[in-house]
Amino acid sequence: MRYMRSIAGIFAESPFKPLYEHAERVCEAAYKLEEMVQAYCDGDASRVQELSDEISALEHEADLIKQTIRKRLPYSVLLPVNRQDVLEFLKPQDSISDCAEDVAKLMTLRSYVLPKEIKSGLLEMTKMTMKTMDAYLKATEKISQLVATSFRKLEHEIDMIGMGLTRKIFLAEDEIGAVGVFHLERISDVLGDVSDSAARAADRLRTMISR
Fold this sequence. Notes:
By secondary structure, the chain is mostly helical. The protein has helices spanning 7-13, 18-42, 45-71, 83-109, 116-141, 143-148, 151-171, 173-210. Helix 5 packs antiparallel against helix 7.
């Protein structure tokens, strides 16, 4: 009889125990964005740089774990899950920390006295992104939670917030300039990519476990 298995249990049965460690590391990088966006909105450039460095360090740790996982997937070894499914799951999961690092680097490039409306939009979008990370970590702990979690609903809400933020950014062009519009719009886009990556990884995880 087919049954739902704990993610931790699957990793314990296989050479892929680092997969969950990788999930924790990429989410840890994403969680740093909450404090970073607040520091960015507050104009605290030194703290923004510190957090950017911390996120880059976590992203590097995640990359090292990713390399370990790939080395443990030789075609000659009989695995409890499909090798290609694991690789296709690993790619979007790794993108979570990649996107977090991209957001961090963008925020170190240029600072502003942000209009109140843009601050509130960035903070709201970040808050929803943290909710997505919470849901994703729970999903990797137990597959039944993955089925019950509506990642697409969270992703849609973030998209709607992002669209509203884009309008606010363009309306503030006189205050922040054309370069500021482009820069903040890019930050908004890449911040949205963090949640998009989590949703894609969740889809691949569901496929891997259900086979």
